[in-house]
Design a protein that fits this description.
Elements (H helix, E strand, L loop, with lengths): L11 H4 L4 E11 L7 E6 L6 E5 L7 H4 L3 E5 L5 E3 L2 E3 L2 E2 L1 E5 L16 E5 L14
Antiparallel strand pairs: 1-2, 1-4, 2-3, 4-7, 5-6, 8-9
Length: 131
């Protein structure tokens, strides 16, 4: 169970500005200039698709994401992450591991998290809105 406190409430107008969409992972590889990032190519229902950089390398092998449908924030301002453009964000949930790994002397290590990419239960068209 997560012990993180909830963020302050936002009004519906702010929430409605988020463009959450379903996208299908068509390709995925390790980011060439970052240890924690994957470079993910997505079919988002547009002719050109998009690329995002996702900080899930510690939890996912790139090939394990190919073919999955994920939820993205489609209207997040693009930005360059270590030389690669990221045109959105893949949603993921995180929680503290039940038993954080121990260090070399057997003491509990730092808070370690399990991270799970938000996926779709059954196939829908790429670009479908999430509400």
């Amino acid at each position: 169970m997560s012990t993180e406190e909830a963020l302050p409430n936002i009004d519906f107008e702010h929430f409605s500005k988020l463009d959450l969409r379903v996208a299908t992972v068509t390709a995925c590889e390790a980011h060439p200039n970052a240890d924690k990032l994957l470079k993910v190519t997505l079919d988002d229902g547009t002719p050109e698709g998009r690329q995002v950089c996702a900080g899930v390398k510690a939890w996912y092998e790139p090939e394990s994401l190919v073919g999955r449908q994920v939820v993205i924030v489609a209207n997040l301002e693009p930005r360059k992450l270590r030389g690669e453009i990221s045109q959105g964000m893949i949603l993921a949930a995180s929680d503290l591991k039940a038993e954080p790994p121990a260090d070399a002397e057997g003491r509990p290590g730092p808070d370690e998290r399990d991270v799970v990419v938000v996926t779709i239960e059954k196939p829908v068209a790429a670009g479908s809105r999430v509400s």
